[in-house]
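Subject: for your reference before the review

Hello V.,

The reviewers asked for a structural picture of the protein, and I figured it would be easier to keep everything in one thread rather than splitting it across files. Below is the amino acid sequence we used in the manuscript, unchanged from the supplementary table.
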Amino acid sequence: MKMKKFALVSAFAMACSAFAQQGAPTGAAVDPSADEQKALNALKGKVEGVIAWSTSRANSHHDIWLMNADGTGAHALTSSDNVDWFPRISPDGSKVLFNRSKGGWVPENDANYPEKWDLWTMNIDGSDQVKVVENATWGTWRPDGKTIVFSRAGKVFTMELASKSEKMILDGEKAFNKSGVILQEPNMSPDGKHVAITLRGSMRETGVWDLEKNSWTKSGDGCQIDWNFDGSKLYRVNPTGNGGTAAPSEILWFSAKDGKQVEKVGFFGIPKNVRLMDLPGRRSHEYFPRLSPDGKWLVWGATDKGHDHDMFDYELYMWKIGEPVESATRITYHSGNDRWPDIWLGKVPETAKPVANVAEVKTLAAAAIAGGVSEAKMDELIKSIDRLTEAVNALTRTQMDKNMAAEGAEHVPAASLENK
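And here is what came back from the structure prediction:
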């Protein structure tokens, strides 16, 4: 009997281990219907910006991808054996902050275990990937782009990126006088006075913590509570609504005054004016809502079956707030998992290209002299020479400034002399 029990437990453990190693389905591309394609065409050029999100379409462990806000130009920013998710674009659009597992496949359900995750940043083109915080999840930017907010299980911290100086701003177990409280997705208000939080662990609700008064205002059930750009609105996922063929869920939003939610949701139901998005039809299990920086657009994910954030076929949608719900445009068409989008509006800053070195220029020049070089290669050579020239000029100007300072002369920057 004991041997049978042991064999059964071993088989179960092996099955769980195999499941844990498999990651998410990579899926396959699907074609939009005629009406969906028409909606995509109508969205093109209507909004300028980018959307970053986590997807399993090319890697079962999830990579960070980027596309234009109208759904075009999708491409990968990361590619690793680790799990990359929860991307957040910096206020100036130049960088992406994201979660990365310490090794291999780790499910999103383990976000409560900070020892399994680190926070990384990279340029908006995917270059210069750097680990910035160890043992942390749910990283977000402050408006100045110099500080981030994140959590470690039941505690919330801020950190200045330049100095790496951390400061704990909330201890969940002390604040709620209850053990086992987990603080998920802490989103600090633009003025820095409040933190919107999804409570998990020994508590399950959403609300706002007042950092000055040390007080909690409950919003309701659900999850993923966040602020709009100026703190005048709160929005979150609520376990009500259509839900399609999956469990009910919809996106609500509320007016906020002094960090507190104005409208109430409870026994008498949900006021019509707080219902922000609930898609009609089968694909209506909404999650991962994100308002654009100007508050005019909503991007989110929805699935027609299942719930697990990192496993099921969530598709991403874009919607101009105030237009009919039916006008929401589906912008991803892939049966892999797509989750946690973030949107940034405007012209994306270009990452400075590395300066060509002398060896590179010599190689290109030799090839050009030998003949038979394409026009594209010749353009590449000219650009490399230009970058090298700029670098030499910059070094020369810097050295001139240093020499003049060392000689005690009146310090006039070399760049100024060139302009005279």
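For the response letter, the relevant points are probably these. The helical segments are 2-22, 34-43, 172-176, 358-370, 375-406, 414-419. The first strand starts at residue 49 and ends at 55.

Happy to draft the paragraph if you're swamped.

O.
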